[in-house]
Please model this.
Amino acid sequence: MRKLFTFLFAALMSVGMFALTPLSGDTWDNATKTLTVNSNPGTNAYANKDEIEHVIINNGVTSIGDGAFLYCIGLASITIPSSVTSIGQGAFQNCQGLTSIEIPNSVTSIGQAAFYGCTGLTSVTIGNSVESIGADAFYSCTNITDVYCYPNAANLTWDEDGKDDFKADGSTVCHVHADQLSAYQSKFTGTVNVTFVGDLPAPEPEPEPQGVTVVFEANGKKKEVPVASLPHTFSCSYENRDGELDAIIKELYEISAGHCSDDNYPVASGNEAVLAGSNGFDNYITISAAFEGTATVSGWYWNSDTYDGDGDWMDYTLTISIKGDEPEPQGETITVTWNSYDLPSYGTSFTKDGVTLTCTIDDTDLYGPGTFTTDLGNFTQIVVSGYEACYIDATGGWSGNINQKTWTGNAASVSWGGDIYCYSSDVTFVFTIEPKSTPTAIENSNLKSEIINHKLIKDGMLLIEQNGVMYNVLGARVK
Model:
């Protein structure tokens, strides 16, 4: 086995001995020696690049390929996001500058010789979803003092097979959950060269996935897509053409058939929680977490419907947001409606259904200045409509034309200037009112004097007056 890996990775070392050139979509900061990875690093992607000191793998990357960072001897730190599910064979072999590694809970497999020869490692954390650890994954990692191992022993296959893994004397401590200690000792003692200690706290229950609805908008249309949990990746394939992202683009742009571009990758902007890119022939959009506001993703898509079915590339732009909670329902509004035939022929005021008009009324025509008032609450909208009848001045919240004037705001008294001609036109008045809040039980002793001063006995029942409205002691309004 040792000779096999020595031969295999000696061959891999001969590949890629050239100046660092980031893969398409990745970035390199020469000042800090930091490589930012935005797409899956494949076989030998950055092998033998000893100038790399820091690697940040962004959300959306799902795998780290075989030998991806092989013999990057200057590598001192690596950040692996929760979107990664697999670490390939020899992915970090002989990265001697690494001192610690944290493998997130999303990872299910660690390949053979993944950390072979990482002599600088002193601490390793293995996430709770790992199901397989390949042979010699930690071969010659003789300075590791602690391994924090969170998987359930029953679900784990661990193929380390010699004392050259971890400390030769077996003093590397592998910390496991207390209720898993006997299972680890029974299953792996003698094959994994560590001392198991059951000192990790019992795992907390997994939280229930928090489903969200992702909203895509384009071409004047909108599509809401519910997802069970985040992060979530929407993909479309150049070859298979049946991914979630395919369906979204086709529906919004009304395309019957098409596929993503294999050489022009989508680009995301506007929010770091939204990442777009390509894994070979597959384009993707990953939503890593719920976010406020919007993000934008732009790319190319082959529209098979154009040019009489021959097809052509088209640009697409998707605006992406997370659907928020529905607003809390507000209290019911009150609507009062008058018609011109309700009005008196002459006078200076008129009241109906809790709304009072004050102005000069002459032959049912209304001459301002005037006011509308109510004791039901506050007006939020007043609409006066009638053919060539509405000569209310467009001031003080009023707007519109001679056929309809509308006031919007929040007030119990609304003034108006100008005239409303009701004699020759069928005029309608619609008042929308936000009702007063209804008091509930009387709790504050400071109100006692008010109750005494404003109580009324009616039909043997104690009533309380507040702001001109009568309530019973339970807070119910009494007409």
